[in-house]
Hints:
It contains six helices and two strands. By secondary structure, the protein is mainly α.
Amino acid sequence: MPNNKKPTALRVLEGNPGKRPLPQNEPKPAPIMPDCPTWFDAEAKKFWATYGPKLHSIGLLTEVDGPAFAAICERYSLYVRCVRRLKSKGLIMKTESGYEQQRPEVSIAKNALADVKSFLTEFGMTPAARSRIDLKVDEKEIDEMEQLLSRK
């Protein structure tokens, strides 16, 4: 049975909309950006380089989240490779007996995209997940900035 519990960091970014107490004894991994896997292809490396630092900067990618984020990158890369092949070869192929059928890449791409969506939701990277995020600004920081700006 899948665990659909939302990560605490994501609940905090959303402003804890359910107002349930936040876990006090939850493990807090070191906020270290994991290294990009060396075995990635170019598309997976590009995804990692584009989104990894952004997730890390808001506390959603730590040293222990690397494998889950690597899975997103790898599945996204697989999806892109399948789409490129389908664009060049078409959606339909002929079998040896002359029967027309859907290329295997159609199903592979569909499954890879479903996996990507599932992982993206875990990291708060879909429009719906993002719409629930309410970045709270520290009132003290605002007051200090206003004082600095109002000085002559």
